[in-house]
Amino acid sequence: MRELEHLLPDLAPPPGGLARLQRSMHLQRESARRHAWRWLPATAGACALLLLTLAWLPGFVQRQQRTAALTRALRAAMTPPSGGIRVVDGAALALPSGQANVRIYLVQTSPPPATGH
Amino acid sequence: MTLREDALQASYRRLERPLYNVLYRQLWQAQDCQDLIHDTFMRVWERRSKVDEATLDALVWTTALNLARNRLRWRKLWRHVPLDEAEAMPHDAGGGDFLATRRLRQALRELPPASRDVLLLAEFSGLRGAEIATVLGIPAGTVASRKHHAMERLKALLGEPVDA
Prior knowledge:
The complex is a heterodimer of chains A (about 120) and B (about 160).
Chain A: H1 17-38, H2 40-78, E1 90-95, E2 104-109
Antiparallel strand pairs in A: 1-2
Chain B: H1 5-27, H2 30-46, H3 56-77, H4 98-110, H5 113-124, H6 129-136, H7 140-157
């Protein structure tokens, strides 16, 4: 028995309050789920991109290194020796090339000295 | 420490009626009260990961009273005058005597808000003095004295015989 029951009568709340709360909670859950799914394509795309990058990167680095080594080798091969080209143990015969900036030589090595008799 | 959905709904079933009775004597509008109760539980649900079920009811009361204070402040700020429902109150809900309801409303409004909260919680919440003190954030000893003063003042304002 309340002390002020005659002054403050007990009122019944309007019906449907709990159902409304349950609906709101359901909607909030759905909204959170949709929110999570909305990020899925972007996340999947980012993951795929990362995997592709990881798969492609070692090959790219290897190709770059090989190209650099080849370039170094070609440059070394094309650089003439500091003292000019000399033919050792043989003879070089200049041939007509037909072009001013192209020279053709016929190089023949000397046969090895005969041994024995 | 995560609040379960069924625990929140059980709390709603337990507290809806007392909350409505307390809030109605502050807002005097059924729809506002229902909205506020709904908002209170949704707010608690949004913070469910930090809510201890052992103190759930106290948290609901604290949240509801804070929201009611905000609503009253908002009304005062915007000079919002709610539609008086006294005439529309059903007879069995105590609305039959329009003048008595109006006088009661006026008398409650004249009480200091802190005393009014104590009085309404003591009347409807079913909480003990120490629990009311926790909900309102006041010392436990203050609850009894505030309740006594509020009751005497209310009776005086309504022309009821006051205890000696």
